[in-house]
Amino acid sequence: MTPEERESSFQTKMMTVYEEKVKQKMERVNEVRELKKIGCSNDEISRRTGLNRSTIRRYLDENFNPVHASYGKKKNGKLTPYIKEIDECLEKGVMGSDIEKKIRGMGYDGSSSTMRQYITDWKRGRKLYYDRSREDGRKTETIERKNIFKLL
Question: What pTM did the predictor assign?
Answer without folding.
Answer: 0.46
